[in-house]
């Protein structure tokens, strides 16, 4: 059964997609079977994998609609998953996903749609990574309900601390009402310049509030991390020896250790 990890932050531009794609590739290169689920109507994880959303005949949008209507996914689920672009597999998104929250909001199963979908494939993977939109709507709630672990990417700025506080509050509410199994895997500092007092002081505050065990290895500033998606590549494909690749490899090692992945599937 797959270990399901959701990456979430209420603040936009927090590095969720960059982290999702690069962690997925790192896990795949460590020998794990990995599925990325793009739950954002901006489809940035899909685009970052070199897939153009408007070329898709089927995506997460169509699959969730089928489930909401009580239909079986069957072959359509397997044919929607893209398996030939990366070392990991991708369940893609397209802009139509933005309308889903309105279209299925009246359905009794709306909050468990993604969980129900992933049940059908979880035995085929070691890890499932879910990339959420920054807004806290039905899609984000569905992603949090489907996951076992939560990673919160955060830039080391004081304004980002508010987003972190909001996400921890959301975690407690989801625990209380919808998914008592969801746990914090860690807070992931990204775009870090550890030479600055600001970055060091913010990370120190996170450590003080959450403890060393809940801070993932920091990802330093690296222009190559920003360049790679424009080529449809992960950092391991684009610049495997750069410091961004080194840092995400450290993140992957942390995840494998914390989630038990170093001991086999």
Structural features, described:
The protein has 265 residues and is of the alpha/beta class. The chain has one domain (3-258): Rossmann fold, CATH 3.40.50. It contains twelve helices and six strands. It has helices spanning 16-29, 44-48, 60-68, 74-80, 100-104, 113-119, 138-146, 158-177, 197-210, 223-227, 235-238, 243-259, and strands spanning 3-7, 34-38, 89-91, 127-131, 149-154, 183-189. Strands 3-2-4-1-5-6 form a six-stranded parallel β-sheet, with helices on both faces. Strand 5, helix 8 and strand 6 (183-189) form a beta-alpha-beta unit. Helix 1 (16-29) crosses helix 12, helix 3 packs across helix 6 (113-119) and helix 6 (113-119) runs parallel beside helix 7 (138-146). The longest helix is centred in the middle third of the chain and has 20 residues, at 158-177.
